[in-house]
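Morning F.,

Quick status update on the modeling queue. The single chain you submitted on Monday has been processed. Sequence for confirmation:
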Amino acid sequence: MPVPQALVTRYFQLLVNRQFTEAERELERLKQKMHKTEWNRGYFRALYGMYLSRKSNGDEQSLFAKLDFSDKAAVHAYRREFLDHTKNGLHGEFDRGYFSAWADCMRVLARLDVPAAHGNGSSEVTEGEKLETLKSDKSQATIANFLRKNEEK
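Structure tokens below.
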């Protein structure tokens, strides 16, 4: 049985919107519907890795942290690269499944209308305003930003 694309698409949409509880439920549904093959094991591992990467939002080396979801050209380029890996005969079944999940993710991202601010988890900043961020988590603004905004009011 192939991977149900409707569930996978929903899962990616939930990840992009950072709805982790619901994404985890979809991931469990996908796991139950998958047959125990090496390809499916690789596919599922990629999905689970995406979930962990997106949820932690702290690893600057992860693709989700680097990728601007609104940059359709970059998303298409990544998809082509992942598709090339899925066709590469040097990769095993696990790896081809893994790269297929990433190619599917890029396919869904290319079709979604994601604002630039949603892409990497950062919040909107007005022109000329610079947020002070924590060293350990670049997506989190400091309390100084909050206090500064309250003083301006």
